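TA notes. Do not distribute before section.
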Amino acid sequence: MAKMEIAPLRPWDDFFPGTERFAKPDISDLIKWNNRVVSNLLYYQTNYLAVVLVVFMIVGFLNPLGMILGGAVVALVFMGSVWGAENKVMIKNFKKKNPTLFVLAVMGVSYFLMSLFGGVLVFIFGITFPMLLVFAHASTRLRNLKNKLENKIEGVGLKKSPMGIILEALDQQEEKINKIQDFLESKMKQ
């Protein structure tokens, strides 16, 4: 088993270079878009963590109780969904067949629980907005050679990172998505 490694903080000119390294994702090819997002999440995970922490701290400074409550609710819902996917066959099958819908369901349940406590705006700005920033960057940032190489090393199990473990818990590994793509292409050829 590979030991856990924290990805290095990527330089600013690599993380946010000029417009030539960004492109609109091809929404007609969802698998390619998903691969780009997963790849960038793994490669820039420390940069994304820094962005999330900055926004989280700004909102937390403005409403500390709401942020603590929001973070606790999201963490508990996430841990509950991962536990449910491991121990309940129905949830496990749903997660395997619809990984993106599973993630959206986790976010929806978190949102619903936050609305019960009256902290929806704190949730939106403190938790959802940073996730939206990360998703927008991961969707539009083109991969480079170092990015692809780093992801292949993690994909074959030579090393593990915190984001890799989270993506694995959500069934969002690139190699599984590639297998699905190969299966769909073979079915389309028949």
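Switch to the second chain here.
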Amino acid sequence: MGKNLDDRPAYLSSDGAKYSLGVHRGPLAPVGADNPKLEQVQSAGGISLATNRSKKEKFARHWRRFWCCYLIGNVIFLAIFLPVFFLVVIPAISQLVVNKSHLVLVNAAVMQPRADSIQLTLQSALDLSIALPVRIEPITLDLFMRDTGPKEPWGNVTIPGMTIKGNTTLGVTDVPTPFINSTTWASFVHDVVFKKYSTLSLKGSTNSFLGVLKSHVVLDKDIVSPGLNSLEGFSISDSALRLPPLADGTNLVGNATLPNPSVLTIEIGTITLDIKSGDLVIGNATLEDLTLKPGDNKHPLKAVLDINTIFKHLGEVLKSQANLLKTGNLTLNTITKSVVWENETVPYYTKAMSELTLTAEVPLMDTLKNTLHSLNITALEAYAKSNKTGGGLLSTLKGDLSNMESSSSSSGSGLSSILKKNVHVRDALKDIHPVKRDAALDSLANLFMTL
């Protein structure tokens, strides 16, 4: 039989016993005064049996085991992401940039107005709000009104390809533009003439390039700019009676001021207007070869007053003018009858302007002074003789002016008597001394008799 285990020694007493392995080693002696501390076994050759690893070592070990899975996963991800990025994300970002861009009209001109076309200049500043240059291909823009929509444009223009960086001006200059829809164009003209602010809507699509990245973008913008605002501020200045009348019958001349607060230059043509006092047409006026540029436009005006109509309806005329005559002014209302450019009627301008009444107050004393200043005495004498108004017209005129200065008059002419007896005249001039009033009416009657 084997050896009894109880007979083995309690522990080995030799110094080497602490390095022994196996069943004969026995328990180690306790640490105490008689037993020195056990020696610590150091690892040899830098090899450790410890299981704790750094993150770097773990990652390297993980990568060595699963790199193939990562590679396959990345290939699948890129196969899905790249088409989405180039076909969806980039175009969406490009479109967003275009949608948020600012488009401002800096210069525009509508020239050569014909019944079916115009010559158009359109320059706008586009700010994409990005620092990178963007190249665009040529783009055709439909021009329309937002109310009717882009399916009913009044015309279109093609802008050539260019590179846009930051704030860039793009547009066309002096391009013949036929009308696609004349009704839409007429509505646009009406808005420009009557509204304080008008809106030009445009839409088109093109390809844009950010480096080599290509995107299809749609430009759909409203450009808001000042309109003509019913030509508010219209006035007639430097008016004078032409004595005798010009060869074409013109017997009143002056300067018409037509404000244009927009950036739009409009070539209109020759405008013929009715002159009205209240509801009565008392003559007609002409603005020849009118072009409205930005700012105030002072343009020569020629008028033919219908003296027979004025005398025939004198009471009605004076009644409609009673309030302003007290201030020494005469009100003239003008309404467009026709607009012609190069002997061709311009229907859209005629329609819009015929709906607009332009009112001006004409100072009577200034008109009288301008009339006397421009008076051609020799021509007036010849005109008076040829029209059998009497050779003493000049002396009569001088006598009347002298009477005005001396505040006395004894004229008994037919027209003067009518004016003095008219209740509307007397009411309008009730605040003026009777002697001065009669003297002024005598001179006014003589002036009218020469027309």
